[in-house]
Amino acid sequence: MLNIKRGAIELSVTTIVVVVIGITLLSLGLLFVRDTFKSIGDLKTKAFDNANTELNKISHNEEITLNPEEFDLEKKDYRIVELYIANLENEPATFTIKVMPPSGLDAAIAQTGEERAKEYTYGEVGIGEEMKVQIIIMATSKAILGPVGVPIEISSDQWENPKPISFTVNVIKSSGVF
User: Fold this and answer.
1) Rounded to whole angstroms, how far apart are CA atoms 99 and 116?
2) What is the pLDDT of residues 122-133, one digit of tens each?
3) Cβ–Cβ < 8 Å for 141, 103
4) CA 51/CA 167 separation, integer angstroms
5) Whole-prediction pTM value?
6) pLDDT attached to residue 148
7) pLDDT over 90 (residue 25)
8) Rounded to an integer, what distance in angstroms lies between the CA atom of residue 130 and that of residue 143?
9) Number of Cα atoms under 13 Å in the Cβ half of residue 75
10) Three-class DSSP category at 118
11) In this predicted model, what pLDDT tens digit does every residue of 28-44 receive, in sequence order?
12) What secondary structure does DSSP assign to 57-101, as a single string?
């Protein structure tokens, strides 16, 4: 009878070890598949963003152009938005850009060299030339999920009134285990 009990104990310990190893391998496999699909999604997003950037460079036929005008952004992540301003006036112009991010988002103009600068004055832009300004936008952990507009005000010494423009950030939940 003792032999039967030992066999039963050995069988149950073996079963437990096999189940633990199986669950471990299944978990690792699922993590690998998830990371693979996330990488594929990131590559797809970057490819489409690059294509849109190149298409917008070709078709700058307006005075003010934003690239991209709408995009997804995970909480605690950042993105760069490019603002192109063309001088269509008859003499050189100076432009001032002011970014006004809503609650939960943080923004800064990259060209200033200052941390979190919300305003930037660009020197003279020649007749028929354009300037490019990069705006860094970040969704904080307190950002509300969903689409949010980020207004920008552009003024010039050649214009009577500032010109407003905005882009849309669709804040999404951060991916990851924690």
Assistant:
1) 10
2) 778 888 888 888
3) no
4) 18
5) 0.64
6) 92
7) yes
8) 33
9) 14
10) coil
11) 999 999 999 888 988 88
12) HHT--SSEEEE-SEEEEETT-EEEEEEEEE--SSS-EEEEEEE-P
